[in-house]
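Q: Can I see a sequence and its folded structure?
A: Here is a first one.
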Amino acid sequence: MKNLTLFLGVALSAGVVGVSGCETIVDVDAPPHVPRLALSYTLSNSPAATSQSFFSVRNLFVSTSQGVLETKEPRGRGDAIVQLFDDSGQLVELFRSKAQPGYSYSGSKTDSVYGNYVPVRGFAGVPGRTYTLRASAPGVAAVEATLTLPPVPVIESAGYVAQPGNPNGGGGYTYNAGRLSVSIADNAATTDYYLTYARVLDRQGNYWGNVARDYNRSGTDINLSRLQLSEPGSSYGQYPYSDAGSNGQRVAFGTDVRLFYQGGYNPNNPTPPEPGYLEVIVSSITPDTYRFYQSLGRYYDTDGNPFAEPAPLHSNIRPGYGLFGGATDVVYRIKL
């Protein structure tokens, strides 16, 4: 899995590049790079606790940009002041730097990835309201971005048909196989953008496990012109969909999936609890969120290819880099 910090820490500026061929070396002069704040955060109408745990890709991460020719590893920073304001100018959320378990030998007080932040007030956005995110840190210019949360999407129907049997996936993580279908009633009057996710709850309504596309049965091809399931914890696994050119038509998909139990293996009780519900989450996202993840997909696909066309990342953070995204979620629960 590729890491979000790799692109947030790098500004897409020109560099001094030596291009070697059989007999020719070409030097290209570049202006000096001015470090700027780079961040990623997605505001939603979901409770903050849900966003932090399930939608980890939406959490706030802050770093500083660096020139493309710098060889040091990009890192986040924990000294930023980040605040969220509503359309009346009222402060509705602020963030603190988060220390989480990492790879340090000193214990759990060191981040594995510096620059992670968590909200202090647990604010959830309201569809139709406008919000402004402002951030500042020593040594760089302050940045901000503004968005309006989209309206609540309408799930017309959703269903899950289990396949026979309950094979073991190994390592204590058992899975069920089945086919998931989702249909959205699209608004004909507007251009809309969507992301879809799914999760499994136990019979008491607690988190049970993940839902992932079954590549063994559905293949590995990703078609960005179709709605499809995204991964809530992976920046690389976001597959945004635009209804441009088909406004008002039914937006639907069906895909083979597997339900993975995430409770861990217990040798004293090797049989996991039965799953109770499958929840489909459809997110109506802002145009900037759509463009950012579209550009991010192109960026990852060209990584390491010296002959690829440039793949700059879309940004709505001014005068810095990154994404202030917006997502309005609706949940459809299916009893298993």
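Q: Show me another, different protein.
A: A second, unrelated one:
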Amino acid sequence: MNRQRTAVFTCAVGVSAILLVSGCDSRSGVDTASSPSTASTARPSAAASTAPTTGTPTSATTVATVPVGEVPTNPQAAEALRPWATDLVDGDIDLLTKTCWTISPQGVAEMYTDTDAILAAIAQPGVDGQFAVTWTGPQRTVSVKRSEIVSGYACPSVRPTGSSADLDPREARHTVRRYLSRFIGKPVNPADVEGDYRLVCDGALQTWDPDGTGTATAPPLANNPGRLTGITAFQDSEITSEQLGNSYVRVSVPVTNAAGVTTTEIFTLDVGANGYCIGDVSP
């Protein structure tokens, strides 16, 4: 069955329209043509996860006072979420934006606003699922991917309880932004490397079928990871996305190579174990 293409507009809070969306969800809300900031603070290691990464350190006692429901099958999950919850209570969105660089800045600003509902959710026992650990409250559901737990400072996704678990296309755009930022030597954070934060879909999985042909294959990019080697810049403000149907999203962005030639590259993404992953790139 062919997938129906519908575009999604997500640049403004509470606005929904059938439009292509652009890179207004870039870091700090300001597009910098080709060089996303690398000034974001790296997350603490698991050993240092009881303190935020900037500003006044938070004591272990303070972290321990934020109730986070335990996960019997994954005790590291609650431990990794507590320092984030402490920073949430402090209300420093700028700090959370810098620390939670795996999430788009707009996503941080929108998802982390209802502190009381989030705290009510994470106070419940967590459930260890296939790809993430989830805490569910009356109003909000909080999910943490495994790569976030391993980091020692878990930045979660937050959605209204009862809503779809599908990721927002703005996070697909942010995935492409992070991927391209690595290629031009200016990652959104020095810690953002493929070995720790995987952005390319797993080549071992024969599940790739964005056009709904019924014949799945391995994601093409997995067999050609250097496809964009040699690019020197990309137009952050021109990033757009298009929902293909089900979990697939297509993201377009102009990139420039060493010869100064700019072309539009098309990225196709699916939802994987760590959120959106890139499975194919084509001109």
